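# nightly structure sweep
# worker-07 picked up a monomer target from the shared queue
# config: single-sequence mode, recycle default, output format = structure tokens
# input follows
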Amino acid sequence: MTNATSLTKALSERIAADVADAGGWIGFDRFMHQALYAPGLGYYAHDSAKFGALPYRVQDGVRVAGSDFVTAPELSPLYGWTLAQQVAQALQVTGTQEVWEFGAGSGALALQVLQALKAQGVPLVRYTIVDVSSSLRARQQATLAGFADCVRWVDALPERFSGIVLGNEVLDAMPVKLLARVGGVWHERGVVLAGPEAQTDGDSALGFVWQDRATDLRPPLDIPGAHDYLTEIHPQGEAFVRTLGQHLQAGAVFLIDYGFPEAEYYHPQRHMGTVMCHRAHRVDDDPLRAVGQKDITAHVNFTGVALAGNEAGLGVLGYCNQATFLLNCGLAQQMEVADHKTRLQAQQLVMEHEMGEFFKVIGFYKGEPWQAMGFAHGDKTHTL
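# output follows
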């Protein structure tokens, strides 16, 4: 039995116990939480490689497992350097001297931002990382060893804090509830234990299958048509944004992720939902297989995020696609003085068929409103 298969077996047994304790059925949000974050077993709780540009690497002449997906900071150092221009402005305008990053991944974004702020002489008392993954924390500590004097790690927010909050691809990894309209009736789609004939993971003796239960839960918009329809709602992600608003005393928040405004998210033609899995730079739509061995994500409903922020006292600074935001923050000028390879890498950050349109940025303020450079042109807050 391989290490991966052994891990999946142990995690499947843990989830099966959860299912049994819940009476034989759990919502997908509970399943997704365990698959990603179960201590020592979930995808983000063990030490497999996750972030990077290649699905494999060569070690001692042998091809071995590499990363599962690439995020913008691993794609180009200019991502963090450009984002740092917005951070610097936000620190100055809000009169704060601390950055808070959630889900810091490999630590690449933190390193780029810290290097850029240092190069510009921007005063920074502390860079705080909030990350639930102990294995990723160890990687971050190694990456950020040169800034050990100002970087710290915490497990949760204090009751009151001030500063600039960053979250790059954080919301998409927060568990979602699945809603399925089947035959005109809305159900919550959950997970049950499959019979022994439905093994899904090789040596693993346990498998899982979908099961729907009628529910009073609904998407935030009525979806025209009588056709079957699968989608998500995001109570945990929206609760996270409300928590930020309740605890943040002064500062700003910048969240970058893939998603849509509500009207696009719940479009009648988007009937298959947005949940997807990432493993070895390949995408699949079956989160019930290879549990713990791959990332599970869902697109973000940015209208819901904006409303959650407003409910908690945050004002919206702006909302636009990643390309617009980075160009507003000076990416083109950064590219002009970069070498050829770096320019090619950075182009993927803004090209429409790459990350440029697919990813969005939403900004919030606590206190008085101000003009954030990232939204100076092309702000689409009106579409939320």
